[in-house]
Structure formats: C-alpha cells, structure tokens
Amino acid sequence: MDSSETATPATAELPIVTRDQTSCLGCSAGTPTTGATAESEGSLIGLLLAEQQQLTAVERFSRHHDASDRPTQERWYADLLPASPPAEGQQYAFEVDLDCCSGCKACVTACHSLNGLDEQETWRSVGLLTGGTSQNPVMQHVTTACHHCLEPACMIACPVDAYEKHPDTGIVKHLDDQCFGCQYCTLACPYDVPQYHSGKGIVRKCDMCSDRLAEGEAPACVQSCPHKAISIRVVDVEQVREDSEADHFLPGAPEPHITQPTTTYRTARVFPRNMLPADWYSVSPQHPHWPLIVMLVLTQLSVGAFCVGLVFERTLSDTLIAAMRPIHATAALLFGLLALAASTFHLGRPQYAFRAMIGLRHSWLSREILAFSLFAGLAGLYTLACNLPGIPPDVTAALGGSVAVSGAAGLFCSIMIYVFTRREYWSLSATSGRFVLTAGVLGVATTWLTLAVAAGVGDQANVAELFQAGRQWLGTALITLAGCKLIFEASLLRHLTDRRTTPLKRSALLMTGPLSNIALARFACGLLGGIALPLLLLSPETARQSLTLQTSLIALLFAATLAGELLERYLFFAAVASARMPGGPRP
Q1: Which H helix or E strand runs over 291?
Q2: How far apart are CA 321 and CA 399, in angstroms?
Q3: pLDDT of residue 35
Q4: 573 near 286, Cβ under 8 Å?
Q5: CB atoms near residue 321 (< 10 Å)
Q6: Less packed terminus of the chain by CB within 10 Å, N or C?
Q7: Residue 523 near residue 512 (C-beta atoms within 8 A)
Q8: What is the DSSP string of 528-553?
Q9: Are 165 and 174 in contact (CB under 8 A)?
C-alpha cells in the first residue's frame, strides 16, 4: 500500500449494505441461495476486507513517527542542545539562564512524569534567592538538579560502585541494580542530589535523561521549560576546574571546589550583595539514622572496653586478671557483634551486604566495614583465648593487642566517613573528639560494670580487692573523660553569638530550639552517669555499703552513660547543618 492509500481516512465512502442484503446471513443451510443474495454476500465480505486495511489514527501517527530520522519536536529545542558531542577534555553539562527562569516548575513536573517518580520523589527542584532593599527588592528563581560534577562525592563515597561517570559524556549515572541502599551518598553529596527510595531500598538520581540525549533528543526538563531557561552545553573540564577555584557558583550554595560541579548559571544582572536563599535563616532537624546511631555507639563501646580493659589490667594482679578478663572480653565482644547486626538495618537491601568491600580503594565506608569485620574476628579469638585454659599468656596478649589496633583502625574509618562530607559540624577535630571520648567514657563504664559482675560471681575472697582496685582508678577516669566530653559538646553553644548565620550557628540554634529537649536529656544523662554517680561511688560511705547496692549503682551508671551517648549521637545526625542549594520559604 502506497502513502496515498495509507492516508485514506476510515470514513471514506463505502457501499451501503441494506437490511435485505444482510438478511441472508441468518438463512438456514438448506435454503437455496439466489444469485442476488450471493452477490450481496460477496459485497459484505469485500466491505469487511477493505475495512481491515484502513489504519487507525494511532497507527498512522506511529508510522509517520517511525519514518522520521529526527525527533518530531526537535525544531523547538534544537538550539538548546550542543551541535556536536563532547570531544576529549569536554563533557555535557546543564546551563541555566536565570533571566529566563520564572519558577513555573514545569521542569520538575516533566522530570517527575518521564522518570515515573513517586509522589514525594523529585530529581529536580526550584528554589528561590531573595535580596535587595525594601524599596528595590530582588527575587530570583533557580532550577537545580544533579550537577554531574568532575569529582562526584557520591561516586567516591559509594562502597559498592553504584555510580559511574561516563568517560565520553561525563554524565554521572546511578546503577540501581548495584545499589544496596546504604544512603552514604546522600550524606556525601553537598547538593542533596541522590534521593533514597524507601520502597525500593535504593538511591536514585538525575542522569540528564542520557538515553534521550544519546538519540539526539533533549532531556525532559529542557523540552518542558516554556522559556528555554535550561539547555545542555559542552563544557571544557579544565575551565570548570579553574572556575571552581573562585568559589563562585550561587549565593549560599556549597563551595564548588568540593566536587567541581559543571552546571553553569548565567545572568545579565548583577545580584545585590545580600542575595541569599529564601530559606537561609531557617533551621530544621535532619534525619537521625537510628541504625547508625546504635552501630556507632556500640562499636565505640566495644573498642573502648577492650582498650580500657587492656590498660586497666596493668594495675591488677594475675589472680584478679584471671577473674575479670573472661567476663569483660565476652561482654565487649557481644556489644561489638550487636553493633554490626544493627548496621544492617540501615541498608535498604541488606541481602546485598556482601558487596560492601567493592569500593575499598576509595570509600571510607568499605574500609570501615573491613576494619570492624577484622576487629570482630580478632575479638572473637581473643575472647576464646580468655575463656579457654592452657592458652599461653603471650598468645593472649598478642591477640589483645591486635584487637586494640584493629578497633582503633575501625574507629578512625568511622571518623573519616563523616569528615569526607565536608560539613563543619562533622570536621576532623569535632568528630574525632566525639567518637574517641565516647569510646573512652563507655569503655570505662563497661569495664566497671564487668568488674562488678566478676566480683559478684567469682571467689568471695577477691570481691573486696576487685572493687577496691577498680573504684578509684575507674571512677577518676570516668569523671575526667565525661567532664571533658560534656564541656566539648557544650562549646558548640558559643556560636549562638556569631553575627553571621554559619552552619555551626544553625546547629547551635537547633540544639536550643527544636532539639532542646533531646539536648537537655543528653546532658542530664551525661552528668548523672559520668559525674554524679562516680562521685557517689568514690565516697567512703558508699564503699562500706553492700555489694548488691554498689553493683546496682554501677549498673545505673552504665545505663545513664549509654543513654547519654545514644542521645549525643542522635544530636550528631539531627543537628548537623551545611550550605545547600537555594530552597523555598519555610515556616
């Protein structure tokens, strides 16, 4: 059938079949068929065959679309795409003309529809910058998505290599099948680009509609913008690096030297000096990540308990060491194993946890998992050696030292996971201070508790000596460490007097505002378990009390310090604040 035939509409004039002509279809088989009736029947069959050859509107459109070499709507966005693909040393990038952006959010809707996102899921957002004076106010809408950075923090941080940067186009794509939902990339990206999907258990993000772009068709956001504010351009990698040195990206946005974003925002206007995101002065708590809270606190407790135990044993006789060491090592190991089990609850797809070592070359999370896996294995061997008779002391001592070293390595990796995010609240000094002091406080409290348990279940002749040996040393150490940690945490509040709204001031405002009840509870538990109860146990009057009363006070001390550190770690996640891309006004 030629093109003229395919264009014939389905409503073209056709022979009309009358009631008399069709009545023969109901005749019985034994009735003779007249010549006229046979002719009518033949016309009906011809009619039906002819009708089958007609194309519907959808079929005609599909055939017309397939016959075209270029996208149908190309004429509307041809000037928004580069004339040629990137050459060596170049890559694709978004370019946003701020003078054309009206904040209509058509780009958000188009991205949402094309990618089949859920109701609350967005890969592109529209923020607002405000500034100027009351007589001459300035307002600027800003559309943002993934910046396909030269040094993508999401890709570097990912422990399972679920991100790849295309060598030719520079587009950073997320590999959904590879992801196991650890959500570390959501913390590492300074622009909050990766979005965690709890239903699927993975992270997803913008890929610049790379499938469309490969066919010469513009991404959904580019096609949908009624003002042509978004376009795809080819940028020189070296030029992006040079531009990142100047830290000039968008007012209030994260500094570009961190990941070297490739998106270009251009405008013919000069923004006033006070141009800031509309939500610049708003503060809101962040997601606390409870599985990470439990994992971090308990791993630090376990490492601290092993290290404090090794140091404390130097003050004891061999008899007292033999009475305490098996119980202490077992308790420290159980807390460590509980921490590793809790960490799996943070994974969206825990069945793929075995992939965690893939990113060992570049991801601190992979290194942390390896270090703590080694720590757990060595701690198990050490605990076994402590509980089995006949193990040479040198072997036990060597195992104890290896446990301490591997635990310290795991603790260092935990610190670097958060330092890598470049958030001021999670700086190297701040995170190191928190994590190391937590290990010390909980290590002393755990050692004191296991000492009391060992004294209760051991030889009664050793009870008084065990309590006397640990009371002064452990009590003094706990008061010192807990006092230092509380002072360290309270020092954040000095930023309330800062004139500028810095990230640390936002964290302090959260501690005294939305998170004030959590902060008060944390300091109350810290003072009770780390200062008040140790002072009470150090008093001569308490030393003369029964073993049951003293053990109960030590158990309460342990519970209070553990609760206080869990609340501190909640604030560690919930009170963190950092620069972000422009958002909208918040209540």
Answers
A1: helix 290-312
A2: 16
A3: 47
A4: yes
A5: 18
A6: C
A7: no
A8: IIIIIHHHHHHSHHHHTS-HHHHHHH
A9: no
| DSSP assignment of 124-171 | SEEEEEEEE-SSSEEEEEEEE-----SS-HHHHH-TT--EEE-TTT--
Give dist(CA 80, CA 519) in Å, integer: 51
Nearest alpha carbon to residue 254 among 389, 415, 95, 144? 144
CA distance 575 to 378: 35
What's the per-residue H, E or C state across 180-209? CCCCHHHHHCCCCCCEEECCCCEEECCCCC
Q: Give the chain's radius of gyration (CA, Å).
A: 35
Q: What is the DSSP string of 315-375?
A: GS-HHHHHHHHHHHHHHHHHHHHHHHHHHGGG-SSGGGGGGGGTTTTT-HHHHHHHHHHHH
Maximum Cα interatomic distance, the chain, rounded to a whole number of Å: 127
Q: How far apart are CA 199 and CA 330, in angstroms?
A: 38
Contacts of 325 (CB under 8 A, 6+ apart): 309, 313, 386
Helix (H, G, I), strand (E, B) or coil at 94: strand
Distance CA 562, CA 560 (A): 5
Alpha-carbon span 154 to 62, nearest angstrom: 40
Within 8 A by CB and 6+ apart from 180, the residues are: 160, 162, 201, 202, 347, 348, 349, 350, 352, 353, 355, 356
Which residues, given as ranges, of the chain have pLDDT below 50?
1-38, 587
Residue 539 has which token pair? 């008093």
Contact 298, 331 (CB under 8 A): no
Name the phi and psi angles at 142, rounded to 5.
-135, 125
CB 521 within 8 A of CB 300: no
Spatial separation of the C-alpha atoms in residues 397 and 386, rounded to whole Å: 10
How far is the first Cα of the chain from the last one, in angstroms, to the nearest whole number?
65
The pLDDT tens digits of the residues spanning 387-443 come to 998 899 999 999 999 999 999 999 999 999 999 999 999 999 999 999 999 999 999
How many distinct helices (H) and strands (E) make up the chain? 22, 10
Q: How far apart are CA 456 and CA 444, in angstroms?
A: 18
Cα angle 369, 436, 257 (rounded to 5 degrees) comes to 70
At 173, the amino acid letter reads K
> H or E element: which one contains 471?
helix 463-490
Sequence-ordered list of residues with C-beta below 8 angstroms from that of 449, at least 6 positions apart, any chain: 331, 554, 555, 557, 558
The pLDDT, as a whole number, for residue 71 is 62
With beta carbons less than 8 A apart as the criterion, state whether 92 and 234 touch: yes
Q: Encoding tokens for residue 531?
A: 């200062």
pTM: 0.85
Q: Tokens standing for 548?
A: 């049951």
Which stretch of DSSP H or E encloses residue 384?
helix 364-387
Alpha carbon distance 249, 260 (integer Å): 10
* Pair 285, 143: CB distance under 8 Å: no
pLDDT for residue 26: 40
Strand partners, 204: 195
Between CA 557 and CA 559 the distance in angstroms is 6
Q: What is residue 266's predicted lDDT score, i.e. its pLDDT?
A: 93
How far, in Å, are 74, 176, 348, 370 from residue 343 at the CA level?
Answer: 49, 21, 11, 13
Give the three-class secondary structure for 504: helix
Distance CA(232)–CA(281), nearest Å, equals 33
Calpha distance 470→460 (Å, rounded): 16
